[in-house]
Amino acid sequence: MFLALRTAKQTTLIANFSKFGILLQAKNLFLPLRQGLDLDLGIPIGVKHLMDSIDSELAASIRQDILLGIYSEGERLSEARLCETHSVSRTPVRLALRLLEREGLVRRGTGRGYLVQSPTIEDILQAVKVRGHLESLAARLMAQGSNNASYLREMKQAIETLDSSIDDLQKLGQLDAIFTQRAQTANKQFHSAILAACGNAYVGYTCQQISHLPMLSVGAMVFDRSVSDTPEHFERGMFRLRLGNAQHQVILEAIEKGDPVRAEGMMREHSNTMIEYIQTFEKRDDSLTVADLIAYSTADPMFPAG
Asked: What is the pLDDT of residues 243-252, one digit of tens each?
């Protein structure tokens, strides 16, 4: 399938451009922010977009295997094995590995090939701190800006949806995947609006570069499995949900009033919740893995607590 889409000339062009693209990003940091940039490689636009999609999907699949621990730290990734596992040719495998190298999930080994470079819990904690600072900066910049009416409406709508979801869960008295998914979607809407409205594209771009890690996607929520243990744990989870949305309200009001200090400070406090939960999980389970964090940040029948 993959080989049928690419002629030898097109494959060479893509490989060369991939290498050159890394140099362009190093010398011109604004390049990834340009919209509509599409170089003519002699490939029909529709086919090129399909090829890009295939490479991205393959990278996502390999990335998931690394994060879930299917590949061990330092394990050599065989191109032949990956080709066989994913039923693809070598070209998309090589392009996917280059993408994962830029993300820091693989590194070049001695000679040919790549070695797995699995992130640790400490890596996730450090990345969450970075995201917290970026979102705090975004809240400050949005409060200092103007013409934010449409984004403010999105934020208000997200807060209302979260309140409604929490009320529904409270009445139900037990976990419900539909309502928790609604809450997660609304949380993403709130945080995405701030990044989009802050007026600095580098903030959102930088957040995107670490979004492949567990708990690092914009608007990610934490799901505490212990909430279903007892009614008291359920009520504690409800309280934390309401507290998080109350912080959303404070951030919104600070931005509406043009108070950048208040907006930044509350967003930083709000972001620190994620760090506190990871540390709580570590205390509860001294063998906590990155794969566990993926489970905590997935909208399964668990309760969102962040």
From this structure: 999 999 999 9
